[in-house]
Amino acid sequence: MNARPRRIVLVAFDGVEALDVTGPASVFARVNYRKPDAYEIVFASARGGSVRSQCGLTFGDTVPIASIRGPVDTILVAGGSETALREAVFAQGVASWLAEAAPSARRVGSVCVGAFILGAAGLLDGRRATTHWASCDRLGIYFPNTCVEADAIFVTDGPVWTSAGVTAGIDLTLAMVEADHGTKIAAAIAKEMVLFLRRPGGQTQFSETLAAQARLPNRLSEVVAWATDHPDDDLSVPALAASAAMSERTLARYFVREVGRTPSKFVMELRLDRAKTLLERSNLSIEAIAARSGFGSVDTLQRAFRKVLNVGPGAYRSHFGANPRSA
Question: Residues with Cβ < 8 Å from 179, sequence gap 6 or more?
Answer without folding.
Answer: none
